[in-house]
Write a structure and sequence with these properties.
Blueprint (H helix, E strand, L loop, with lengths): L2 E11 L2 E10 L2 E6 L8 E4 L4 E4 L1 E6 L12 H10 L2 E6 L10 H14 L3 E4 L1 E2 L5 H4 L10 E2 L16 H10 L4 E3 L4 H15 L8 H4 L2 H18 L3 E3 L5 H4 L13 E6 H5 L5 H4 L12 H12 L5 E3 L7 H4 L16 H10 L5 H16 L15 E5 L4 E2 L18 E2 L2 E7 L2 E5 L2 E2 L16
Helix pairs in contact: 4-7
C-alpha cells in the first residue's frame, strides 16, 4: 500500500489550529501528530501552508448526460479538485431528468469511469414520480430533490404545491432538498416588466422579479410543512437575510430536522454588479443586496445557515449572453469557490475554523457521511493544501470549466489551492492533474432520520 507523509503544515480541523504532520496509508489517514518520522513513498513538505479537509459541495449541475456541450462529469470534477473540492452531489436536471432508478444508476456509472472527485447523485422528485423516488437507497444516494426540474415541461417547483409536499413528507424516510421561490409572485413581476421592456428587461431587475418576498414566502411555507411532519428538509441557496431567521441556531446540527445553506455567488456578488456583469451573475434565486450578503455571513457564523455550497451550473456564453428572458440562469463556480470564500477570512469576517466547518465538517454531518469531512485518523484522506498568502488574479487562460468562462474573471484572490488529495491520492498539484485517479461513490449512514 502506498504511503504519503505531509510535513510541517498548519492543520485547521474541528476547531483546532496547530502545526503538525499527517501520515497517509493507502486511502486513509493513519496518523496525525505534531511530528511524524516514518518512512513514506511520498514526502510532501508543507512549509507552513494550510491543510484542511476538502470541501464537499452538495449542489452542482455537472450536466451529464444530455447537456455535455456545457459541461461533463469529467471536465467539472477536474475544475472541482483544482478548487479544493474533493466530493460533490449532483442535481437531476440532466437530459433526461433523473427521475427513475435506472437513470440514477447510469450517472453513477459515468462518474465511476470519469470523476476525479468523490461523488453522489440526487434522485429527482416531481409530482409524477413519487413512488419511484421513495425507493432510493439511503446508504448510497444523498437524497431527493426538485432543484432544476422547473425547467422541464411540468414547469413548477414543489414549494408551490404544498399538498404534494404533505404527501412526500408523510412517506419519505430520506433527506429532501428543495429550491424555494414563489412562482406566482415571480410570474406576476415578470409579466409587469415584460409589458414595459419586452425581452430586453434590464438585468438589474432580476432581484426585483425574483424578489426577497418570493423567496421568503416559499421558504416559510416549506419550513412549516416540514415542521408538521418532522422530516429531514434541506433548503438550498438561501439568498436573503430575511429567510435566515426561519432557521434555528440553538439546535446542534446532528439534531436539526431542517437545515439550510448559503452559496458562493450570494456570498460574493451584490445587485450593484448587475450593471457591469449583467447575465454573467444571473442565478435563481437572484443575487440580492449587500445587506443580504452580510446577513448570510452572519447567519453562517450564528449557525442559522449550516453549510456553504456552489450551485455550480455552467452554460455556454452563447446561452448566457442573450436578452434577459432568454438568458440561462446559473454559472460555473467550483474552481473558484474556496478561494472566494477565503476572502472573507482575509477580511476578518469568517475564521478558518468556521470556513472548514461550513464546507466540510457540517456537510458530512448534515448528510450523515461515512468517514468523510474531517482530518481524523481512520478517515479517508480527502485533503487540500492551500497557500493563504499567494495572491492571484483569475484570467481566461486559468479557467478549467468546459464552458470556458467564469463570473470571477478579473477578480483578485489572496489564497491559492496548491494540492488536492482524494482518497489518499494526489489528484491535483500546482496546475497538474493525475487523471488516472478516480473518486469513489460517497456512502451515508443507512438510517438518516
Amino acid at each position: 500500500m502506498a504511503t504519503t507523509l505531509i510535513k510541517n503544515v498548519r492543520i485547521v480541523n474541528e476547531q483546532n489550529d496547530q502545526m503538525g504532520d499527517v501520515f497517509i496509508r493507502d486511502e486513509r489517514i493513519e496518523r496525525i501528530d505534531r511530528s511524524i518520522n516514518l518512512a513514506a513513498d511520498h514526502i510532501v513538505e508543507g512549509n507552513g501552508r494550510l491543510l484542511i479537509p476538502g470541501m464537499i459541495d452538495d449542489q452542482v449541475h455537472f450536466r451529464e448526460p444530455g447537456l455535455t456541450h456545457k459541461a461533463s462529469i469529467s471536465s467539472e470534477s477536474r475544475a472541482a479538485v483544482a478548487g479544493g473540492i474533493t466530493g460533490f452531489m449532483d442535481m437531476p436536471n440532466t437530459l433526461p431528468n433523473t427521475l427513475n432508478l435506472t437513470l440514477l444508476e447510469e450517472k453513477y456509472q459515468i462518474a465511476k469511469q470519469s470523476s476525479l472527485a468523490n461523488y453522489s447523485f440526487f434522485m429527482g422528485i416531481s409530482r409524477s414520480n413519487l413512488e419511484e423516488a421513495l425507493k432510493v437507497d439511503n446508504e448510497w444516494v444523498c437524497g431527493i430533490t426538485d432543484d432544476g426540474l422547473y425547467f422541464n415541461q411540468e414547469g413548477s417547483i414543489l414549494c408551490n404545491h404544498p399538498d404534494f409536499l404533505d404527501q412526500l413528507f408523510q412517506r419519505c424516510s430520506t433527506l429532501v432538498a428543495l429550491h424555494c421561490e414563489n412562482e406566482p409572485e415571480i410570474h406576476r413581476q415578470l409579466a409587469h416588466y415584460s409589458a414595459i421592456y419586452g425581452d430586453n428587461i434590464p438585468f438589474e431587475l432580476h432581484p426585483i422579479i425574483r424578489s426577497e418576498q418570493a423567496c421568503y414566502d416559499a421558504t416559510k411555507t416549506v419550513v412549516n410543512i416540514a415542521k408538521r411532519h418532522g422530516n429531514r428538509l434541506h433548503v438550498y441557496h438561501v439568498s436573503t437575510e430575511k429567510e435566515t431567521h426561519l432557521f434555528e441556531a440553538s439546535v446542534p446540527l446532528r439534531n436539526k430536522r431542517i437545515t439550510a445553506e448559503a452559496c458562493i455567488h450570494h456570498l460574493t456578488f451584490t445587485d450593484e454588479e448587475y450593471a457591469t456583469k449583467g447575465a454573467l451573475i444571473k442565478w435563481n434565486p437572484a443575487v440580492k443586496t449587500a445587506k443580504d450578503r452580510i446577513g448570510l455571513i452572519e447567519a453562517l457564523k450564528e449557525n442559522r445557515l449550516d453549510i456553504v455550497a456552489t450551485d455550480h451550473a455552467p452554460h455556454t456564453l452563447e446561452e448566457k449572453l442573450q436578452p434577459y428572458q432568454k438568458s440561462m440562469s446559473g454559472g460555473p463556480l467550483v474552481q473558484h469557490a474556496l478561494p472566494a470564500l477565503l476572502e472573507w477570512y482575509h477580511r476578518g469576517a469568517l475564521s478558518l475554523t468556521e470556513i472548514v466547518a461550513k464546507t466540510s465538517h457540517n456537510v458530512a454531518e448534515l448528510y450523515r457521511m461515512v468517514d468523510r469531512g474531517y482530518l481524523r485518523e481512520g478517515y479517508y484522506a480527502d485533503l487540500v493544501l492551500i497557500d493563504l498568502e499567494k495572491p492571484w488574479s483569475d484570467g481566461n487562460t486559468d479557467i478549467l470549466y468546459k464552458c470556458g468562462w467564469s463570473p470571477f474573471e478579473g477578480k483578485n484572490f489572496n489564497s491559492k489551492i496548491c494540492t488536492t488529495w482524494v482518497n489518499g491520492q494526489m489528484v491535483y498539484n500546482e496546475g497538474e492533474f493525475n487523471d488516472s485517479i478516480k473518486g469513489k461513490r460517497l456512502q451515508f449512514e443507512k438510517e438518516r432520520l
